[in-house]
Amino acid sequence: MPTRRALLASLAVLPAMPALAQSPPWPTRPIRIIEPGAPGGGNDTTIRLFAPHLEQALGQPVPVDNRPGAGGRIGVEAAFRAAPDGTTLLMGNAGSNGVNAALYRDLPYDLETDFTPISMLVTGPNALVVNPRIFPVNSVRELIEAIKAKPPNHYNYGSGGVGSSAHFSTELFKQMAGVQLEHIPYRGASAMGQAVITGDAPFLIANLVNVMPFVRRNEIKLLAVTSLERWPDLPDVPTLHESGLPDFETIAWNALFGPPGLPQAIVDRLVSELQRIGRDPTLIERVKLIGGQVVCSTPDVLAARVRRDIAQWREVARRADIKVE
Known about the structure:
Helices cover 40% and strands 17% of the residues. By secondary structure, it is an alpha/beta fold.
C-alpha cells in the first residue's frame, strides 16, 4: 500500500492546473441604446422613460443614440453590426423590426432570426385621428363615406416615412375600407402630427403615444383605436373592428433587442431587471399618460410578436405592391 510520502510525490509531477478565469460581472461600461427614430417620437419617448431605471439597476450610464432614417433601417443596421458584448442594444418597434421585413428586399439581416430578443417594453393600439375641420365626422363609417364622396386620392394621409407602421396601418385600412388616399411621408412623429393639424395630411393612423398630446389639446380628433377590444384607458373610443372593419388589428409596440449572439447571461440579467422595473407604479402611470401599457415580457413573447407582425405586413405589402428596391 503506497505511503503518504509516495502519494505526495506522485501528485507533485502532475501538470499544474491553470486558475479559472473569472470574468468581471456585466456591465462594466456604459450601455448605448440605439433608437432608430427621430427624437420626440413614441419609441424615443418610451426608451427615455426606461433608461434612468436601467441606469439605476445596472450601475452604468445608459445613453440613447438616435439614428433616424429609412423607416428605422439605419439604426437597426448599426445595432446589427455592433459587438455582442452588451454595450450596444436596440430599441426596436413594429416598424423598424416588423414592417421593414416586408418593405426591403436587400436587408443585410433577418429581422426574425438575427437579432437577440430581450423584452417587449410597451404595447398599445394605434389610433385613427383626423383634422375635424376637414373631416367633420363622428364615426369611422362617416369618415369612409366622406372619403368616398371625393375622387380617388383627393385626401392625403401622413406617416413617419415609407415603411413606418403608420404607413402600413393606413394601407391596411385602405384595403379593408375600399378607399384611396395619397401617402405623404414625413420625418418623424411630430411632423406628421402637425400635418394633421394644418390639414396638409388630415388623416393619420399612428401610435397613441404619438398622437395623444394633440388629442388632449383638442387639435385633432380621435375616431378609433386599432386593437380588437377597446383600450381600457379610452373606454369611450370604439375600435376599427367594431366600426365596420371586422378583425382590423395593428398593434404598436416598443421592445429591446440585442445584436446577434448576445450572451444568454446578459439577456437573463436584462429580463430580470426589466420585469422588476416594469412593476414600478410611477413608470406605469407615465407610460399610461402617453397611451401605452407596460408589459416587460420574456424573449419568447417578443419573438412571437415579431414573427406574427412580419407575416401580416408581408401580405399587406403584397396586396398593395409596396416595395423598395
